[in-house]
Amino acid sequence: MSLRFPDPGQRAAIAAAAKAAGVSMQEYILSAAYERATAVESAFLEHFRASAARSGDAFAAEPGTTDPSTEQRAAEQQARRDLERDGRDHAA
């Protein structure tokens, strides 16, 4: 694994963090990447399960009554805002 950093300050910060954690820079970087990937996966699965539950409820409704209620629309809008907020948090 090649550890080239165009910013010497970034390299120094990562080296200091790795040293404080008692691991090599490679291990520190790989661990951080793994933690981030699993956090993204967990968020995706959480939102997927919530979406699947809402979809299941909609399809379980009687024919002709699939128009969402005011409460369901509000819940969907809140879920969308939560998802957009989580996307911004993970993009940082």
UniProtKB/TrEMBL annotation:
Compositionally biased residues, Basic and acidic residues: 78-92
Gene3D superfamilies attached to this UniProt entry: Single helix bin
Pfam family membership, one: TacA1
InterPro entries: TacA_1-like
Region annotated Disordered, chain positions: 55-92
Keywords: Toxin-antitoxin system
The protein's name: DUF1778 domain-containing protein
Species assigned in the record: Wenjunlia tyrosinilytica
